[in-house]
Amino acid sequence: MALCIVAFLYVRLYLTDNASDVPEHIYDRYYVMITDDYKSSFWQSVYSGALNSAEENNTFVELLGSNLYNDYTPEELMEIAISSDVDGIMVSGDGSEELSALIDEAMDKGIPVVTMYSDNADSKRCSFVGVSGYNIGKEYGRQIVNIKKEKRTVSYNGANIEGYSEFAANVTVLMDSKMDPYAQNVIMSGIQDILTEEDKESETNIETVLVDNSNPFSVEESIRDVFMEDEIPNILVCLNELETTCAYQAVVDYNLVGSVSILGYYDSDKILNAINRNVVYSSIAVDTKELGRFCVEALDDYISFGNTSQYNAADITLINKGNVSEFMKKEDAADVP
Amino acid sequence: MFRKLKGISLSYKMSGIFILANLFIFVVDIALLFGINRMSVEMEMAYQNNRQLNALSIALDSLQDSTTEYLKAKSTDSLSDYYISEQNYVDLVEELGTQITDIPYTRMERNIRNMSYDYMDQVSQTIEAKRGRNVEKYRVLYESATKRYEYIKAYIRSLNSEQFVSNSEKYTELAASFRTFETFAMGVMFFVLVGSALVIIRITGRLIHPLESLAASADEVANGNLEAKLPESTSSDEVGRLTVAFSKMMVSIREYIERVRESMEKERLMQEKELMMETHLKDAQLKYLQAQINPHFLFNTLNAGAQLAMMEGADRTYEYVQTVADFFRYNVKKQNELVDVADEVDIVDNYIRILNVRFSGEIHYDRQIDERLLKIKMPSMILQPIVENAVNHGIRGMGDKGHIFLKVYRDGDRVYISVKDNGKGMKPEDIEKVVNGKWKYEEQRGDSNGIGMDNVISRLRLLSEREDVIDIYSEGEEMGTEVVINIPYTQDNEKQKED
Questions:
Q1: Are residues A170 and A248 in the same domain?
Q2: For chain A, what is the domain count?
Q3: Chain A residues near residue B120 by CB distance under 8 angstroms
Q4: Cα distance between residue B416 and residue A27, in whole Å
Q5: Which tops the pLDDT comparison, B493 or A79?
Q6: Which domain holds residue A85?
Q7: ipTM of this complex
Q8: pTM to 2 decimal places
């Protein structure tokens, strides 16, 4: 008899053990996040910030496209989102008319859209959550000034400083072809403003190079092109994560560590390591979690109250040799689940 | 449980045990089969959602094709195809989940569902536009619908592949558990088999045990030990009843054997008695014959003497010779049979009379006899030897002072005959010897008829079937002796007396 009971228990345990996947949680709302590169750690980080914040309100955020085998453009993903009748869309804007039209379509259908990081200002999007381009520009400007100060030659007369021979800074700003040009202009003006304010004496040669971001491999090629030129800039300003990573790799490959200073963007492990090894001079980290949270809050507000703040800015932080160890610790801690 | 079972018949018990054991195995089998069945269903269902998605994909293709066909040819067939495909697709889409959960598949299903409704809406608008011949509109709408069709297809494909991977994992797990279950089932079956076999052996052992002890007892009895220990009955089934019957039979056999033994003993005793009786008679006869060589010749001689005496007028001589003749005739005549007490008393009278003639009236003889007892039967030749002893060993040599007193009386169911003398008396040890038959006779006396006391006592004992047939009293030397014999006062004697 005991055996019989054991058998039944076994069968029962086995059956419950192998029961099909049962959802642990059912959500009330369904937001999607659309980016041009859902794999980048920048967007993954934004996404996790958004997801954590959304779950507090029983909302699920999906990084759209991550479950699909085909790679879709943000526009196609927008169409899918609209067709899927989601409850809210967060999309990284690019200022294009096409995306603006889709944003309008979604808003018309009653699906609130928030643009994030860069904006489609001419669309009907209910809010924009980004970082202040001007502030980023100012931060880059300060870094350029710092580099110039560090690298200028000082001539001594005995113990007294006789004079400086200025460092001829050739700055190249790598513009992102996918980024709203307006936002990039704001960054540029931020840089210019600082240079004119704090470095009146010397001249700084600033160039912009448009990096082709039309396909996944073109960024790397565009950046290599910069290094193939006769005149290689000695300061390189990168405006996104991929540019930073590619520039860093190129500097290493062309054996230009020390002679080319990279001002990077974002705080991925690779970039933090590069700062630690003095390959990247400094990087600007956006509080991605905050960015994600602001997006979700904007959508929640819009759905609840029919309106929301038009603009939200996430904090930015400068990472350089002095404070990189703190960030590396944080990253390590964050890696622990 | 066993107590309750005790009253049930053995065949029911045995069948019950086997049916229960089989039932148990059957139940376990069913349970295992049920488990296996559940698992195989589960395995079948492992790829179920892939099949569903494939069906959905096919239905979607069919809807898209029929729409395209209609837009191309505007045929009635393609329109009806469209309606059928649409309905078919709607049915399938209805089955998709709508929930937003932490599982990606459910969200994908929801998206496919919503996109499908959006797509069907666009398709129907396209069809409407085609009907309205709004060329520009239906072309734009068709493009938009086709885009959605592709998105849905992509979704279905992705979902299908994702689920295929997950289902394959599930299937592998299932197959592994199935194999484990198989081993487990075999183990369970084996244990159940062994367990039920043990239980059956134990229970049948308990049922058969009384039969075995019964068989052991029967063997013992068969080997001749009738005193074998009888098995105890513990149940009232066939074995129990058999045990009880066997015990009863054994007790009856023992009793019967005892009875047979007793009756055989009795018979043996009887035969022995008869033999003894015969031996003693023969002995007496022999002794007599030794003494009396030819009684008939002696009678005739004596009778001739008596007649001679009568012719000569010698009356006393005639009487004496006649008495002697009577005495010997009695001896010859009544050797083998029981005689009346009266006959015995007469022979004593004759004997005394003869002696008195021989010894010229020396013996005083008195008797006191209950007349009612004269017809009582007793062995012959008893009293005369006793009296002869009294004369020979008691009063001989006393001259005319010797006195013999004969008394016959009854006390209860015994008849007593006492022969008392006033002679020499006896020592107690001699009395003991005589009663126990250990008295050694002296050489045969010429004036004895040869029948000794031991012969008399033996025959009396045989008749009475008891030991205390004789008592000898003597108060000492010169104080006389009394010999008292007793014979049964039987019903037969009573009757004979009445006759």
A1: yes
A2: 2
A3: none
A4: 135
A5: A79
A6: 29-131+289-314
A7: 0.76
A8: 0.58
